Amino acid sequence: ASMPDSIPGGGAKPKLGRASVDNNRRPWNGAGYTEFREAQKKMVRAHQAGLVKQTDHEVGEILSSLRNKCVRENTLIVFATDHADHPGGHDMSGKVSFYGTCMRIPLIVSPPGVPGRPSTAASLSSGT
Length: 128
What we know:
The chain is α+β, with helices and mostly antiparallel strands. 34% of the residues lie in helices and 9% in strands. A two-stranded antiparallel sheet has the order 1-4. Strand 2 (86-87) and strand 3 form a beta hairpin.
């Protein structure tokens, strides 16, 4: 599947966007940040998608292990993260602003013995 285009800059502070890109000029990322064009942004998002896929796999392994050891029903599971990143959207990279793409982070709590279906809160900050 092809990677969709990034969210346009559309008014982002150029200094902030450039600083976020400059801070990610490291040999480990392989994105070639000399020019932060759509091709590099798509590569950053592809890397991020790969990391999400790997995390999903590892969480599945942990859950399988808990089930195999018959301890899942007695285990509180909490999955959280401290931040998200701008994978090229708004002409930014990294965690540098409060745009929604950088603020929407997962918090999953699965207590033992609580039946029911998962629910989703659109925004914890607004109470909806």
